[in-house]
Amino acid sequence: MDLILVRHAIAADRDLLRWLDDSQRPLTSDGVKRFERAAVGLRRVQGSVDLLLSSPFVRAWQTAQILHEIAGWPAPIPCPELEPMNDVHLVIDHCNRQEAKVVALVSHEPLLGDLAAVLLAGESAPPQPLKKGGAVGFSSDQGVIAGGMTLRWWLTPKVLRMLALP
User: pTM for the whole thing?
Assistant: First the structure.
């Protein structure tokens, strides 16, 4: 299975007066514009995916929608396992129940950094955080395995945007 991790794009700052529930914080207009360009670069690096799972938090969902619209990936499916404070093993188990060959996950820190570390080096690895709008690609012939994934690429949002240039 190929597994693509994508951190949500730049979102509005936390503001309890505007969003009592942090899950409702949206992307900024600049975050949308930057990630639209990054999505073009991500399409060039990854091509298509079979399944796009997203945290139901607004900022992650909006990022997944951009991937659907710009990169041509499938419509996102809400995945509560991808909420920011969940355990990486919930995500690993969920991915291993999927029949798709290429799965993309849109989520948050600290979950993605913890997941990337566990996939690369196993349980005791320090977190490897992703920048907002960044992405990383893994592969394995045996499914999603702690310490058993091969790193294919790790790209910052700036590099993804540069890849979108003609």
Answer: 0.97
